[in-house]
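Problem 12. The chain below contains 352 residues. Write out its predicted structure in C-alpha cell notation.
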Amino acid sequence: MCDHEQNFDESTFNELIGGVPYMLGFYPQDCLLVLPYIQLEQALFCCAIREEISNLISGAIQPDQLADVLRSRNWDSAVLMVIGGGTHADGGVPPHSGRLAELDKALWYEGIQIQFSFWVPRIKQGERWIRYCEETPQFGVQKDPRVCSTAVRAVSRGKVIYDCFEEFADTLKPGKDANRRSRRLHSALLQPNSDNEKIRGGMELSRSLRDVNQAVHAAENDEYPRKDKDLVLLAHALGDSLIWSSSLRFAFTEHRQAAIRLWRHLTRELSGGYRANAAVLLAVTAGVDCNTELVKLALNIAAEEDPVRAAEVELIEGMPYGVLPAVGLTSLSCQAAMAAAEIALIMADTTN
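Solution.
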C-alpha cells in the first residue's frame, strides 16, 4: 500500500491537481510530483518537486537525497502524485503502484510521512483521479484547473502558464538579437574579466543602483529594457559584485514577481557572463518563490554560460530539485543587506 488512506475531501484533490501547473509554470506530463504538505486550517501545498516518470520506473530516485531536500525546508510531510506513464483499467490499481510503495516506505524510513498518493492520466477537466488505496478505493473527476485558488492567485500576479515543459523552457532561450548584442558588449569592453573588476566609485555605484531599481519598478508594469543602450547599462551594473548582491533583496520584497520577470528578460537578452549573472539572480529569486522548475532551468543556463561564475555563487550546490534550503534564505538576505550597507558607505565617503 502507498496511501495511508487518511480522509481528504474531493475539494482538496481538485485544489491540488488544479494548482500544480501554477506551481510549476506549465502543465506537466509523465512525471512524479512530490508536493510538500503543510497542515494548517486546511491542507496547504507550497511547491512541487518534479521527477521524470522514467526515474520512478527505473528506481533511480534517491529517497535519501529527496528527504534531505524536504528537511532543508523543515518539511516532514508530503503527497505523491503520478501523472501519466500508463493507463488504468476500471476496478484495477493505478500504474506504478509497486514503485510508489517502495518510495513511500523509503521516505518513511527517512522521516518523511506521505499523507496520500494518487494518479491522474493528465491534468484536464473531466479526467479522473484515483488514489493508491487497497482497502477503500477512492476516485473523483477533475474540475476546471483554472478556477482553483492557486490559479486565481497566480493569474492575479501576472503568471503565465504554458502547455508543456518545452514551451516553458523556450521562454529562457536567447533572443534573436542576443549574439549581436554580445558583440556590442565586448566592443564596449564590458565583459567581466578574470579579476572580477568592480565599479567602486560612489557616483558609478549610485547610477548603477538607480538603473537596476528603475528597471525592477518598470517591470511591475511589464515594461522591460529593449534598446541596446539600456541593456548594456544593466549588464554593466549587474557585473559589479556589490550591485549584484544588493539586487538579491528584491527576492524578499513585494517586488519579487517584477524582479523575476526582469531577470527572465535579461537571461533571454544577454549572453556570456552577463547572462550568467542574470540567470543566477533569477534562480535565487525563483527559489525564494518556490518555483522549482524555473530554478533548475536558470541554474543550468548559468552553468553553461559561465561555469566559474555559477560555481562561485554560494548555495548553488545546495539547491537540488530547485528547492532553496531554509538556511539559504537567511544567508541570501544577509548578503543583500551587507552589500547595500557597503554601497551606502562608499557613496557617503564620496560625498564627504
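Discussion. The first helix runs from residue 10 to 24. Students who got a different answer should revisit the alignment rule from Section 12.3.
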